[in-house]
Amino acid sequence: MNSNVYKLLHLTLLLLAGVVFLPSCRQPVLTSIYPSSGPPSTLVHVTGENLEGCVIKLDAGTLNERTLEGGFFKANFFTVPDVSLGYHTVSIIRDRQSSENVFRFKVTGGTRRPAPRIDDITCRMFRVGRDGKVFMLLLVHAANIDAGAKVQIGGVQQPSWLWRAISNRPNMIASNPATLGYPIFHYGTLLCPIGNLTPGDTIRNITIRNTNGAVSINTFKYKIADNPLTLDSDGDGLTDSAEVNGVDADSDGVIDIDLRAAGAHPLHKDLFLEVDYMEGLQPAESIWRAFDSIFRNAPVLNSDGTQGIVMHVDRGQGGVGYSNGGRIPYYDYITLGDTTDCPKAVFAHLTTCAYFYTLKARHFDRKRLGIYRYCICGNYLHPGYAAGQAYRDDMIVITKETNPFLSPQQYAEISVSTFLHEFGHTLGLHHGGSDHLRFKPNYNSIMNYTFNRVGIDLNCNHRDTESYRVYTYSQGMRKSLNENCLNEADGICDNVPIDWNGNGINNETCIRAHIHEDPGNTILYDHCDWNNLTYKIGILR
Predict the structure, then answer these.
(1) How far is CA 15 from CA 19, 137, 177, 301, in A?
(2) Is 13 helix (H, G, I), strand (E, B) or coil?
(3) C-alpha–C-alpha distance, residues 415 and 409, integer Å
(4) Left (φ > 0), alpha (ψ -120 to 50) or beta: where does 4 sit?
(5) How would DSSP label each residue in 322-387?
(6) Which of 187, 247, 337, 459 is the most buried (most CB within 10 A)?
(7) β-pairing verdict for 156-157 and 161-167
(8) Of 409, 382, 408, which Cα lies nearest the Cα of 396?
(9) Cα 263 to Cα 260: distance, rounded to the nearest angstrom
């Protein structure tokens, strides 16, 4: 890549990040390192003052002194190398001037970080030169990358630096990571400036290589935008132009959907949902607070360097982008089939029935097509008595609770689960993640019927209800289960034994047992839901 272009990209990113990268004569100061212990390959976050131009030293001043590779800002990250167990000093040095204070990192035994896994690729600073070639910053988001990881294209190493990272400790869902199929300790973003690209082309065979030589377990490709008008920097299915300038849906020169005023940002993933509810069936506000929190805390990194997905739910609360949803007329039943599916009278007092798409045509503004997913909250779903149903970008949620033993708070919790489950279908997720296999015990997601009303399992025993009430999608960490050869003592994770064949013994090896609902014995896989969401509306799945 042209060195002048790279320098421009480098300087621009520093300015965007609010960094003034000037030489400093002030002594660097270490404020903290996190975590402060772990096995070799642990990614450590470093904070402090006057760190510009500094390098990280391990065991400075000893025969074992090492200079550690940092992230984009040099001294903000380091990865623990293969060193002896016990305490090692960490200091910051610039031109022989060392931080007055040092921290100690305790190297322990334990599970090392596995090879990285690429979860998503986005971009920023997309530029088309006079020669028609594209220059941009490629942002490669991945699990378990280290501070010196490099992007490779076709096996050729590219200039790249670790920019952002978030810990996955709160979501590990196993006290012994070694018992997981793919433990995720952290997620990070690599910056990779790249140029001389042809608009509309696809960059193929993208991988990541950690400093220990481990190459990502998967290969990615990235489709270059045809031009700035079709560019979708954050990969949320909405073009940057739409998120900045709005959408003129009917081409009359007037902006119909002002996404920026509604809170959208071209460098951060946004999802839009309109919710209409039948008279008397308004969902509790606590559902939307929970929904917002689940997506904002998702293990997803963005082109702006921040975490999570912003949910924009228009339920008629008012304001730009939030005034179309709300109350619609009441019907006893609602169906996704046509009106011939409606019952004449299942109960004497329940006789009216509506076709979902008739109501959508009546209450959903067509100008929102391609931007907002759509939900109707109703009384009873027909056919059947399910709590919800989804088809492509549309969903139904039944918000009338007929169980007299549930408190309003308990029902609100269940409703969060139902909304999240059905919304997951509109994002391309199935009951088995990428497949339709139901009740897979190792698929730790609200999409799994085992958990879809009570919350996912947090203690590796998929039947212990005391550990439930966490509503989220899977990160794909659990190991596969072969129904033709199951080891009961291993269980799902943490070596919690499970009596798969129900014979009262839980330590049998390589047994054959059918442990999911659908016919046939097979290999059951977990699925990383969060990095396989289909953001763009109208995609067949």
Answers:
(1) 6, 14, 39, 20
(2) helix
(3) 10
(4) alpha
(5) -SS-EEE---SEEESS-GGGS-S-SBTTB--EEEHHHHHHHHS-GGGTTTEEEEEEESEESSS--S
(6) 187
(7) unpaired
(8) 382
(9) 5
Task: Place 1 in a pLDDT band, splitting at 50, 70 and 90.
Answer: very low
Q: Which residue has the tokens 């081409």?
A: 251
Residues 6+ apart with CB under 8 A from 384: none
Beta bridge partners of 86: 107
Q: Closest Cα partner for 358 from 380, 333, 383?
A: 333
Q: At what angle do helices 408-426 and 285-296 cross, to 10 degrees?
A: 50
DSSP conformation class of 265: B
**Torsion sign (Cα): 225, 226, 232, 237:** negative
What separation in angstroms does the CA of 538 have from each of 99, 178, 313, 369? 55, 40, 19, 9
Check residue 41 and give its pLDDT.
95
* DSSP symbols for 50-100: S-TT-EEEESTTSTT-EEEP--TTSSSEEE--S--SEEEEEEEEETTEE-S
Whether the Cβ atoms of residue 433 and residue 398 lie closer than 8 Å to each other: no
Collapsing DSSP to helix, strand or coil, 28 comes out as: coil
- CA 68, 69, 73, 77 dihedral sign is negative
Q: Look up tokens 């047992």; give the residue.
A: 513
In the numeric block, which tokens belong to residue 384?
């059947």
492: which residues sit within 8 A by CB, 6+ positions away?
A: 441, 442, 460, 461, 462, 478, 479, 481, 498
Provide the b/e sequence for 9-47 (b: ≥16 CB within 10 Å): bbeebeeeeeeeeeebeeebebeebebeebbbbbbbbbe
pLDDT in tens, 450-477: 888 778 887 787 665 555 568 999 999 9
3-state secondary structure of 488: helix
DSSP state of 47: E
- To the nearest whole percent, how much of the chain has pLDDT over 90? 72
Q: Is 256 in contact with 247 (CB distance < 8 Å)?
A: yes
Contact 230/211 with Cβ under 8 angstroms?
no
pTM of the predicted protein model: 0.92
Report cis status (omega within 30 of 0) of the bond before 35.
yes
- Beta pairing class for 333-335 and 353-355: parallel
pLDDT single digits (tens) 294-314: 999 999 999 999 999 999 999
Tell whether the model's pLDDT for residue 20 goes beyond 50: no
| Helix (H) / strand (E) containing 37 | strand 37-38
Phi, psi of 178 (to 5 degrees): -65, -20
